[in-house]
């Protein structure tokens, strides 16, 4: 997609953490318009007020087809950022694992799938554009305390690969992002080094503009992925022993 400058962008889960950092960074890079989508768009009132009309709040729960259809009426979008997600702390042996895992799949996987389907024709009409899917290093290595979440993010990784192949003909760049611990509410239970959302977003947008397809935007994700490629089973054991909630 080359540059963000002058483009209209839609960001899901835009009201906090990485999503809010995306909104700020996109404006700094000259995006013409940012559709900031969230289940409660009123939580974006401050950034909307400060944007001189460039940030447009959009009500969007990615598990609700009718809200996806309404969001897809914005026909100028050239970059879609699938950031919305949820995580529960559950192992697979937890009695509630099936219910929790189902909700994580509905949000993380099916939400990303359905929003991507809805916007693919718009991206094609606007020259191809790009989709950024927020996976996780857990897409590649299952974290035992995040078992069902890891499974949902593995599904996002597979979806990203499939969309990349299917949308290549229409010229849509599909970027998979696989961060490690980021300093957001989601990672507050972990006592480990965390990268700021702002730095993660900077790395992602730099990679997008360089035409890269897979992004490991922090030292932890880069290290773990290299370990995984070299020794998958050993890396899984290392993760299980190292990354535990406080």
TrEMBL record:
Pfam families: adh_short. Keywords: Oxidoreductase. PANTHER family: DEHYDROGENASE/REDUCTASE SDR FAMILY MEMBER 7B, DEHYDROGENASE_REDUCTASE SDR FAMILY MEMBER 7B. This is Short-chain dehydrogenase. One of its GO terms (cellular component) is membrane. It comes from Roseibium alexandrii (strain DSM 17067 / NCIMB 14079 / DFL-11). Belongs to the short-chain dehydrogenases/reductases (SDR) family. The keyword Oxidoreductase applies. GO terms for molecular function: oxidoreductase activity. Residues 7-184 form the Ketoreductase domain. Signal peptide: none annotated.
